[in-house]
Amino acid sequence: MDPAVLDDTPEMIHNIPQPALEQELSNFIAKDPNITLIKGFSIHGVEQTEDEVVATIEERSTGNLHQTKSRHLIACDGRRSKVRELLGIESESEDSDQTMMTIHFNANLRPVVGDRVGMLYWIMDPIAAGFIIGYDLDGIQVHISKVDVEQHPVESWTEYMCRAKICGAIGKDDVPFDIVSYRPWVFRRQVAFSFQKGNIFLAGDAAHSFPPTGGLGLNCGLADVHNLAYKIALVHRGVATPSILSTYTAERRGVADSYSKQSVKNGKEIFALLQSLKTAGVEDVVQARKNMMAAFADPAQRTQVEAGIEGQREHFDNLELHIGYVYGDTKPPAHASHYSPKFLPGARLPHAWISFPGQPSPETEAAKRFLLPQKPVDVSYVKELDMGQVRACQWSTLDLCGPDFWTLVWGQEQEIPHITLLQKHCDMIGARLNIWRLGVDFEIVRQSWFADELVNGGGVLIRPDQHILARVSAETNGEEDLIVEVNKHLGISKC
Ligand SMILES: Cc1cc2nc3c(=O)[nH]c(=O)nc-3n(C[C@H](O)[C@H](O)[C@H](O)COP(=O)(O)OP(=O)(O)OC[C@H]3O[C@@H](n4cnc5c(N)ncnc54)[C@H](O)[C@@H]3O)c2cc1C
């Protein structure tokens, strides 16, 4: 692990098999009294008026139709979204003629990889060229490879062929494994032109789908609803007008578009690397291996292979994509791996490790602490850190932002008229504002650049989804500027 990543994000990238994540989410929502989970129904139709959505759903076991009414509806019904189809929302898409095969298999790969523990393993041997996503090295793995449909049409694939492929990928005959499933798919990306029609929203793969080369699909879907949920909540509470909801497509579509393009690019980089090994299209495995070894031995070809290997970096090292984007900025990131924290409106609040000075004795302090997550971050799983370092990495600036709150992180001790006015305004319109002052309520533990930004720039006003709404500065902002920004975002006129 690279502990330096913890300067950019409080959590290392976590590699969780999708079924395990879905189970975890299922357990979580089962405990939430606000959520009713009903299974075994399919969406059949949707109609909407200005303030009501009526969904017709079909009970799969009986074929009976039922209706549900709601003010808003979020369609997370996957890549082939029926709701998207019913709404007639078209997508921008890019097809390729590359057919891929995903093979899910169960195996204990630990004896094979030894201490080279990773998430992704590139298989260069022509017998199984492609890559393995090692979700759980003791169990579930996914092998993805390109299919030569001329030689091996997808209909001709059998479990026996998959076994031969996985055996070749593992490279040993004595590692037992089971084939769980295998599924062909076409390498393509697709992004809906709009993620909203009236009071119905598309989220996740229903809005955008792209190849898994980059691990961006689910993360993108989660960020969609992170963006949307607080906006819907503010409308329901009467704090914002419905115009705030139109910022959803405006903000999320560009991010999904750049994810989709990067995922395609990552896939192409893999094909290019395999091409440079001179094995592509060579059916005779012995000959293909000879070609590969000759490519390694030739200095010019080897340079090409090495460049191809470096070209895989953005596939797995892509923090700039995950947390470096800025809503409103239409430029795609220059390099997925080159993350930089940004104190710009639209950017996600940068992470820095913080601590809380003294005892939380005053009532206000206690109240603020109450808003913090119940448990601090625990980075003890990062073996490179000693106990002192683990203790210093417990709270992040991101923890200052409660999901239901606007947050002002302020770099100076004294109050200024901006803050007093903003607080009054938020109280009046029913928006909850929480103010944290550097040096009074919290301290920066490690990343001094964060403190410099606050002291030099004053502060940042943060939306409930942890994205910056505005920079605050006693020198550059007029006293009412912050209120104007808040009102603009909420779609309300001056009170
Ligand atoms: C091999 C592979 C590896 C991947 N690895 C990663 C990764 O590392 N990181 C990452 O972020 N993403 C990854 N992804 C992408 C990720 O799996 C998807 O982006 C994610 O599952 C999308 O979630 P979703 O809820 O939007 O859609 P889905 O997971 O497709 O769920 C849609 C749901 O809607 C239901 N549904 C469908 N039609 C209807 C209907 N008519 N009525 C009612 N319900 C319906 C379905 O039953 C399903 O439950 C990977 C994908 C693959 C294939």
Automatic annotation (TrEMBL):
Residues 6-258 form the FAD-binding domain. It holds the Pfam family FAD_binding_3. Its cofactor is FAD. Keywords: FAD, Flavoprotein, Oxidoreductase. GO terms for molecular function: FAD binding; oxidoreductase activity, acting on paired donors, with incorporation or reduction of molecular oxygen, NAD(P)H as one donor, and incorporation of one atom of oxygen. InterPro entries: FAD-bd, FAD/NAD-bd_sf, RIFMO-like. The keyword Oxidoreductase applies. PANTHER family: BINDING MONOOXYGENASE, PUTATIVE (JCVI)-RELATED, TRK SYSTEM POTASSIUM UPTAKE PROTEIN. This is FAD-binding domain-containing protein. It comes from Penicillium desertorum.
